[in-house]
Model the fold of this input.
Amino acid sequence: MTTYDAVMSEAALGDALLRPDNCSIERALAIVGEKWTFLVLREAFAGVRRFADMQAFTGAPRQILSARLARLVQEGLLRKVPYREPGQRQRDEYRLTQMGLDLYPTLVALMQWGDRYLSGREGPPLLLVHRDCGAPIEQHFRCTDGHEIAGPREVTALPGPGALRTPLDETGGTLAGRRLALQRPQAAPEAEHRDQSGAAEEDRDQ
Done:
């Protein structure tokens, strides 16, 4: 285990041993953790609201796009708003709810990660700037006291009010402890056999 792994185990992950069905990351990914869903949200944030336009911009097959939109509406990230073009039947637009809007920082972080590690020599394909002043936008982590957080080494995870804990083990129940337990050197079978044989001989001598 590297030093960084050890720091992550103790500092970033902490003692909150959450069951898989009690993890907010897993629950969020159950809704949005798929390519087409993120592309639909990308277009929604860009102001695209209609099915045909979303299909054109995402390239999603019609059946897949229909399923993703229905799921996002069902989960509360999008809402349907009916509209009617002159001479045509009524259709629905898809607009972001507050729950959907709250995902904007997540999409921006994902985009900026892609800009940093996956862009070509030409640089990022899209720039996000503040509409009022034109300066590029940046994302930062801050604690409620206003301190800048540089990375996971400066974060400690603590059990929240909804945490479900697994039973404590001999290491104290921490993820770091579990990893350390796996790394403890174990006696080889031959050594264990010799130890037992030696103990038996001592018993006979007594």
